Fold this sequence. Notes:
The protein folds into 3 domains: 46 residues, 2-Layer Sandwich (Uridine Diphospho-n-acetylenolpyruvylglucosamine Reductase, domain 2); 111 residues, Uridine Diphospho-n-acetylenolpyruvylglucosamine Reductase, domain 3, CATH 3.30.465; 110 residues, CO dehydrogenase flavoprotein, C-terminal domain (Enolase-like, domain 1, 2-Layer Sandwich), CATH 3.30.390. Strands 4-5-10-6-7 form a 5-stranded antiparallel β-sheet. Strands 11-12-13-14 form a 4-stranded antiparallel β-sheet, with helices on both faces. 34% of the residues lie in helices and 26% in strands. A hairpin with an 8-residue loop joins strand 11 and strand 12. With 288 residues, it is of the alpha+beta class.
Amino acid sequence: MYPRQFEYVAPSGLDEALALLDDNPGAKVLAGGMSLLPLMKMRLLSPELVVDIGRIGGLGDITDNGDTISIGALVRHAEVASSSLIQAQGAALAAAASWTGDRQVRNRGTCCGSMAHADVAADQPVAALALGATMVAASSSGVREIAAADFFVDVMTSALAPNEILTEVRIPKAGAGAGSAYDKLGRRGGHSDYAVAGAAASVTRSNGSVSAASVAVTGVGVRPVLAGAVAEALVGSDGSDAAVEAAAAHAVAGVEVLEDLYGSVEYKIHLAKVFTARAVKAALAAAG
Length: 288
């Protein structure tokens, strides 16, 4: 299927791109195109103008900022997955990127694009949540920072304004005794395709117990969400398998779990608990 007719512009600078968004309500931003183009081909989305940011300099880098790591708007999934810096400091995100789509998608799609698309079963948004990421959005009015916990609003809906571009994702570096992990069941089994259900976890060990934890789940509701009850149960525990299983029982506390083509409510609740436990155990193992 072909998209409806549209205008295409490829600005060379960020200011030019932002001005185009101001002047053309309803325009859409193209980075890798792995989310936007399928929607346009199915005519679920028909923007009159597509603004391709692929030629804008300074958006394609993974940067060590000292306390944080910045992932620019044009950084591909494959680059996130293979980055030794992200593997060491945000392993959950590296794993999520490595399981995003197929090889062609990973070599073309972008981390920031996945965040902005905000699919209910995407991999990288849930990792960003668990890692406490910050989204950096630019508009002609300036730059604002949005906590990942406030960024994912509803089905394919983020906190980005129509005239904003997500220019980078920042993740805090892992401290001493910290580790993170991501695990899921993909729609085609294993780790392929979107998640039927999945979980990301970031934990810190100190003096023989879990001193900090952040856990998030995806694929079970209208958006990826933090599993606060799991984190609360983990903190102060010894991190044993029994403690993890008990905490994982709260994986969907406060979440309206939705049935879809890939599983009933009961099945998704079960999977959320299973993969929450797996992610937490892997994160604890990484924490040492």
